Amino acid sequence: MCWPKNGIPKNHYERTMLRLVRRLWVLSVILAGCLPCFGQGRTVALTFDDLPAAGTNDAVEARAINRTILESLGRHHAPATAFVIEKRVGEIGESESRGILRQWVQHGQDLGNHSFSHSDFNQLSVAEIEREIVSGEKSIEAVLKEVGREPRYFRFPMNHAGDTKAKHEAAALFLSQRPYILATCTIENTDYLFNRAYLGMLADKDASSAERLRAAYLAYTSSEIDYYSNLNKEVLGYEPPEVMLLHANRLNADMIEELLALFEKKEYKYVSLDVAQSDPAYKAPDTFVSMYGPMWGYRWASERGVQVNGNLEPEPPNWVLAYAKSDHTMYHRYQRTNKGKAERHP
Hints:
Helix content: 40-55%
CATH architecture of one domain: Alpha-Beta Barrel
Largest sheet: 6 strands, parallel
Number of strands: 8
Shape: globular
Order of helices and strands: HHEHEHHEHHEHEEHHEHEHHHHH
């Protein structure tokens, strides 16, 4: 074939360019569909439940817990959302509690509604649920109004979002009319049980057990991050921005630097709850109805018909669970009869 002096024949050139454009278009579609897979790497939004504080009614201790958490979040440039139980505001003291909430706002963090009394919504009627939601707004609404903001997120107590289809749909409709965004969570570490045991150890002045618990708590948190991130990836085909559920308690105040370092070691970047829940995984309609409150990976699996084995999820160490019981003699009895095993597997 003789080529013309000016290069490739026009018809051949046009065909080549057309094929190239088509391939680029297909590639762009593929990349757009896989965007969540690449994104900006691993990300996590931090959330703290049960403000003004969990596990104490002492205003001085509550302030110290929150101050420590907030200072660490600031050092690590970690946005967070704190969910408030209005009844706890009164139990700790309204003036002191609102001061704590203002500290969160002044540090650039957000506040969400965690209901009035943290009652089990499975046991409530729709009307009672609605009252819990509205009554839970009092303090967060007042504090956010001072800076020209409004409450936007609601988290169900124990993540119980309606144990019947009718209740689930009614609660979802009511939230949308306030309007609220449902706060999700994809990773949890049973910190409330560890904290219960930890407070007992501190009260008993059992420094060695408290030190051992802190190490076990960090190890368990690491295993839960790995488990849930793998679960979410298995169900969705990629790891979404995670939402970590923590509580504003003494243990997390004492361990906040180690917890943040743990996420950073696993190459997570911190994002706001807004950014995390902008991922498509969180935009799908919430149709999961259960009397339980599992993490969202299990909900996504149920909604998508994906079979997962929840028995693979790690459990807290038995010795921690034993100490978390109100009768600490159970723990000491466990230590005597299982000393070797407990020491080898803290």
